[in-house]
Amino acid sequence: MDSHFIRNYNTNVLTWTEAFLNYDKSIHNNKDIKFNYPGFFVSHEGHEIEIVKPILKDLNCNIAHLYFNITTKAETFGKHKDSMDVYFWQCQGATKWIIEDKDEVILNPGDLIFIPKNIHHTVIPLSPRLGVSMSNE
To answer: Which of 31, 61, 66, 113 is most buried, most CB within 10 Å of its CB?
Structure first.
């Protein structure tokens, strides 16, 4: 299956406050979190946020991670591939996705992209951004 995206998939997006509260909860519960200096954060408990639950159900996923950059200078994961199919729901800000070094997609709040497993992609924040990555693994 090829990657694809849907404009305005769901514009009832996650807020910065909800993301920060989830990140804080993850820290207090000693759950796995990641961060890269300066300003790139990942919280692995996005599936516990109420607004995310219907999205997970709609996409037939059970795991959600929050990715946010508070500055465009922050390092992300760079070019990489995932070992599972991934949906990414852009909630705040904008990102440029480069798929297999050839296709480029700009995601804005409410947009959704699907990236099949083992497909190389690079995510570049175009502004401070927040999004939810969802999968079954």
So the answer is: 66
